[in-house]
Amino acid sequence: MKRVAILISGGGSNMLALLASMNTTPGCMPVLVVSNDPNATGLARAAAQGVPVTAVDHRSFGKDRSGFEAALIAQLSAAKPDILCLAGFMRILTPEFVRVFEGRMLNIHPSLLPKYPGLNTHERALAAGDAEAGCTVHEVTADLDAGPILGQARVPILPDDTADTLSARVLVQEHLLYPMVLHRFATGQKDPIFA
Ligand code: GRF
């Protein structure tokens, strides 16, 4: 049984998809949902399912990024996770943090990496006139959005798409891809899947 901690910053729709999959697919169990924002609505959604939740407010650390990360590591380590899933987690993690969990930390990014690392991925795909977009689950390494790819899902970009309509279409695929990749990763399968 792999113990899974999930890190969120907002609504946690990917977190909910991961929790639902852990309820139905054996092999993984959620041990903590933690957010950098105590007001993240995903915290209440996780607590409503009986999952332990906590918050480490990055704002109370000001510019002390390592202080924030030390507090985050303390919370995470107490839960003894085997796997960490970043799910809509919007803080950039330092190489020191990554080193503690490297090899067992996943992230979902709303683009077909290596295209469009960073923010505003849908706006950038639209501006580029791309025919398709999608999402990527990858291992987290010290290089932002650049770790080994574990899975990707593609969607078409339609002529009248806006960033909102495209992100909604991609989000549907995120909710399918992330659980599939988590359960594969939990059983040691690291060859990428392309949905
Ligand atoms: C999603 O686009 C996801 O790809 C990105 O954050 C956005 C919100 O995710 N990582 P969630 O709804 O909070 O899971």
What is the mean pLDDT?
97
Query: What is the fourth-level CATH superfamily?
Result: Formyl transferase, N-terminal domain
The stretches of 5 or more residues where confidence is low (pLDDT under 50) are none
CATH architecture: 3-Layer(aba) Sandwich
What is the CATH topology descriptor? Rossmann fold
Strand percentage lies at: 15-25%
**Outline:** globular
Please identify the structural class as seen in this structure: alpha/beta
Strand order of the largest sheet: 3-2-1-4-5-6-7-8
Q: What's the CATH C level?
A: Alpha Beta
Report how far the terminal alpha carbons are from each other: 26 Å
- Oligomer type: single chain
Spatial extent as radius of gyration: 16 Å
Give an overview in words:
By secondary structure, the chain is of the alpha/beta class. It has a single domain (2-188), classed as Formyl transferase, N-terminal domain (Rossmann fold), CATH 3.40.50. The protein is built from six helices and eight strands; from the N terminus they run βαβαβαβαβαββαβ. The chain has helices at residues 13-24, 41-47, 65-78, 95-101, 121-127, 163-186; strands at 2-8, 28-35, 53-55, 83-86, 105-109, 132-139, 149-156, 193-194. The model has no long low-confidence stretch (mean pLDDT 97). 5-O-phosphono-beta-D-ribofuranosylamine is lined by residues 8, 10-15, 87-88, 108, 110, 135, 167, 171, 174.
Provide a quick synopsis of the model.
This protein is an alpha/beta fold and 195 residues long. It has helices spanning 13-24, 41-47, 65-78, 95-101, 121-127, 163-186; strands spanning 2-8, 28-35, 53-55, 83-86, 105-109, 132-139, 149-156, 193-194.
